[in-house]
Amino acid sequence: MSVLGAGSVLAADKPQEIGAAFCEARLRNDDRAMQSLLSPSLQKAIGEAEARNKIIAEATPGEKPPFGDGIPYQSFPDQAPVCKVGEVREVSGHAEVDINYAFPDTPTANWTDRLKLLPQAEGFLIDDILFADVANGTPNQGLRRVLFEAFDQ
Fold it and tell me: Of 36, 97, 124, 150, which one has the fewest beta carbons inside 10 Å?
């Protein structure tokens, strides 16, 4: 893995590497490590959502804001004990990496999300997280869409 710029952004030379770093951050529930894997535009979208979330939280102290449980970096809120990199696909202009979440004692609870990776001069960065069929049945749901639509409720 190589360091991008002067900040704390990391890029990976191979999609599998960024997938592995993503899984490591998820298993540690380490938002700071997670942020370092994201494209600048996704970091900006998350920052804007967090700012809006804070305004709502301060204006309505007795109510839970849209991101009261944090930024949803995965389809389901349950913390899976296993996170593994799956299939990698080259798609026009980007790569996609399956992230397989597993519950060894309850295999029916397993799911797979996908990382959308954009190539940069120094390597790949995560530009979106495409969620598995989520609980509410909304197809093609991803982190960017959730960040955008959360405040329209």
Answer: 150
User: Would you say residue 137 has pLDDT above 70?
Assistant: no
Query: Do residues 2 and 122 make contact, with C-beta atoms less than 8 angstroms apart?
Result: yes
CA dist 68 and 31 (Å) reads 15
In degrees and rounded to multiples of 5, residue 31 shows phi and psi of: -65, -35
Order of strands, sheet of 111-120, starting from the edge strand that comes earlier in the sequence: 82-91, 94-102, 111-120, 123-130
Could you say which DSSP state residue 131 is in? P
Q: What is the CATH number of domain 2-152?
A: 3.10.450.50
Query: 81, 104 in Cβ contact below 8 A?
Result: yes
pLDDT interval class at 5 (50, 70, 90): very low
Domain ranges of the chain: 2-152
Give phi and psi for 35, each to the nearest 5. Answer: -55, -35
| pLDDT exceeds 80 at position 7 | no
Residue 95: its H or E element:
strand 94-102
- pTM of the model as a whole: 0.87
